[in-house]
Amino acid sequence: MSWFYLFIAGLFEVVWATFMKLSEGFSHLGYSIATFAGMLFSFLFLARATRQLPISLAYPVWTGIGALGTVIIGVILFGDRLSPLTWFFVALLLIGIIGIKLTAK
Fold first, then answer.
1. CA angle, 101 as apex, 80 and 12 as ends, to 5°?
2. CA 30, CA 26: separation in Å to the nearest integer?
3. What is the pTM of this model?
4. 105: pLDDT confidence band, cut at 50, 70 and 90?
5. What is the C-alpha separation between 30 and 51, in angstroms, rounded?
6. Domain of 45, in residue numbers
7. Residues in Cβ contact with 16 at an 8 Å cutoff, skipping those fewer than 6 apart
8. Within 23-54, where are the H helices?
9. Distance (Å, whole) CA 91 – CA 69
């Protein structure tokens, strides 16, 4: 269940980053509130996950899920353009997350 909590925490990382972009520097109240709510839930689920998982595994996976998800949202919703080399490194990030999960005890 801890890995599930960690995954949810990572998804909320994507949520708050997306709403932060939409808030346009916290100038839109609704998006700003959603940003802080996403942060809160992200931290709460991370805290729940670290009851069982070591922080040395949980933190990099949490940030990796957030980073990877935010890249995908940036490309899909905001039209961000990434070079092929950047996509290569995004793929390495995904491989790293999967590798940490597969090799964790």
1. 45
2. 9
3. 0.89
4. confident
5. 32
6. 2-103
7. 34, 35, 36, 37, 38, 39, 42
8. 29-49
9. 12
Integer Cα distance of 94 and 84 in angstroms: 15
Q: Record the tokens describing residue 47, joined without a space.
A: 């805290």
Q: How far is CA 38 from CA 7, 16, 78, 95, 105, in A?
A: 14, 5, 19, 26, 29
- 45-91 pLDDT tens trace: 999 999 999 999 999 999 999 999 999 999 999 999 999 999 999 99
Is 11 within 8 Å of 65 (Cβ atoms)?
Answer: yes
Nearest-angstrom CA–CA distance, 32 and 24:
9
**Region of residue 100 (left: phi > 0; alpha: psi -120 to 50; beta: else):** alpha
The total domain count for the chain is 1
**Is 91:42 a contact under the CB 8 Å cutoff?**
no
pLDDT in tens, 13-43: 999 999 999 999 999 999 999 999 999 999 9
Specify the pLDDT at position 104: 83
